[in-house]
Fold:
Amino acid sequence: MTKDGKKQMNMIEAIRSAMDVKMSQDPDVLVFGEDVGYFGGVFRCTAGLQEKHGLHRCFDTPIAEGGIIGAAVGMGAYGLRPVVEIQFADYIYPAYDQICSEAARLRYRSNGEFTAPLTIRTPVGGGIHGGQTHSQSPEALFTHIAGLKTIIPSNPYDAKGLLIKAIEDNDPVLFLEPKRLYNGPFSGDPHMPARNWSKHELGLVPEGHYTIDFEKARTHRAGTDLTILCYGTMVWVAEAAVEATGVNAEILDLRSLMPLDLEAIVQSVNKTGRCLILHEATRTSGFGAELIAEVQQHCFYALEKPIVRVTGWDTPYPHALEWEYFPGLERCSDAIVRIMED
Amino acid sequence: MTSRKNISNLFVPEPEFRPGDLPDYSSINLDKEQWPGKPDPLVDAFETEAHATGLVRAMKLNGEVYGEWNPELEPDVLIMGLRNMLLTRIVDKRMFAMQRQGKLSFYMKSIGEEAISVATAMALRDSDMVFPTYRQQGILMTRGWPVLDLMNQCLSNKADRLDGKAIPICYSVRDKGFYSISGNLGTQTIQAVGWAMACAYKGTNDIAATFTGEGATAEGDFHYALNFASTYRAPVIINVVNNQWAISTFQGMAAGQSRSFASRGLGFGLASLRVDGNDFLAVYAAVQWAAQRARNGGGATVIEHFTYRKEGHSTSDDPSAYRPKGEAKIWPFGDPIDRLKEHLIKLGKWSQEQQDALIDELKAHVLETYKKAESLGTLATPTDINPATMFEQVFEDVPTHLRRQRQELGI
Structure:
């Protein structure tokens, strides 16, 4: 349904629309990856792109993640803008060298002579019974790398604007898609009825071109008593937990982990005096550790309580015990209650 | 030689000769080696089987041409090849000596392998991007990159175009079709295939060429490169420089039980040639053949350049620790410069006197250029590079967190 050039989309449709818009505008944009061509991707994000734009614009690749990224680096150096899909973030590791040592460093080592303007899309996170090979959140392995941008949207509107921005960026961008949010927001409690994007205001997406700047956090909910720093699926778990506890918390959806909107974080924590950090990824050396370091350095005198983080455990992602692993509604609510105690 | 016994059933390969052994290659009878003929460049890949395990050659050790692969180049072109190879060798010797004096941190010579880079660059068009590894400086000499720029990069001085960001020899020269060298081995091979795919996508007639040593063919990237090149019929030449040694590791560690590195290509359905890498004419002809194949829709070719690394891996390496000292001298394929010189003398187009005069001229040029480079600074002198440049070119623009870190450094 079109209304003022806007359309209700789920996250899959918004991501597809971003690629479609860029492929229509720029002949140098091409899309490839495992199963993305004729079939349209295992999550359907590229469905219809081959039919509309041609076999040469959207095609399948061999099952070789390092090959996909390596070829994209060469194409990017040439002047194309490849948008590649790694089917699950769990499969990205064979490409780690091509991402970290090549794509991220090509500009630096050639002093700007060669660049790698590629976008790497990959689904992350759990909550779909994917076990250890379809559920990981490896963002911290990439935010540690100089020369790479790491983006993670939490809703269809942001997903499209950020993805177009990523495709237009002249540096490599890792675009993480929280797969549990593809079809709707998620409260963190699998027993609550599933929601979808069809009536949500963040599912109302412009059909044409627009971008959202990196390094800009989004205030998902304004509040005065507690700052919750989160991204991806955990934005919606945070929202549910805030509703469940009735605390007047401010929820910051970071969206862009590298570069990070430190200003928004500092401003919020200095205002509320309390900081809770949520991520699905394992705890030790996770992105939360980076956030804690920055918050304590910049907000130390405003803090009324120790900073708390709720994360996945330091174990592989289990299959049967998925909901004991996932930092869901109950664990997040408990943490909010504890941090609000005097 | 110390006896290193293997008392298990696990097979661990070892080279034929180690320090203390008297190397003996009399089993290689060069004139009895297979000399496969020259097929049409658009031949079915599987018809290159004899080329993948034989040895493509165009001249005998004495400089006499033989077989079907003589590219029949004009004498002027041959003399230019000789000049480019000599220049490469003389620059290498100068930079190696200067490293020993502490003027640069590191250097890698290509002595004995000059024909591979020089003849390749001459057989390609200047618009064909090469994705080299670290022993193809001959391409830069051939494509006319000023030696002064090369030296400035190695010295990391104030005239270094890369602002001292990269270690010596990791050149990047886009306008000479020379892709930024990575220190991580093999990664460039699949990137070259991506570049070639882009050439095809954009409908240009350009191709890409990449180089790897035989040791790094064991990396996954090499296999990605062959697979993608075959799948998308990419216009690319994948060169494997088999110089027998990957630092101290002999070629058999990467080759396993296979008969050649070129034959890796056959399994992927790619045309494959094993070439005498010390034979300037053969390298030229093979690359010309592969380029013709790539430009006419025939897809990629794998070329193994069979040669010998005459010196250490780098300035940090002492090869006498792992191979016999005299091995380089008795390696039966001769020296690429001497062989081309002999060929030109046989043609009646060159003489030893001309050779000596050319060497003197190039030595004087290189010495003069080096003095100029040194006057712009070396690693041994305090750096003139602005520290703020450290934070530049990480991204297109300097983001907030890097600006903050730059301020922390006080600039």
Observations:
- The first strand of chain B starts at residue 129 and ends at 131.
- The mean pLDDT of chain B is 95.
- DSSP finds 14 helices and seven strands in chain B.
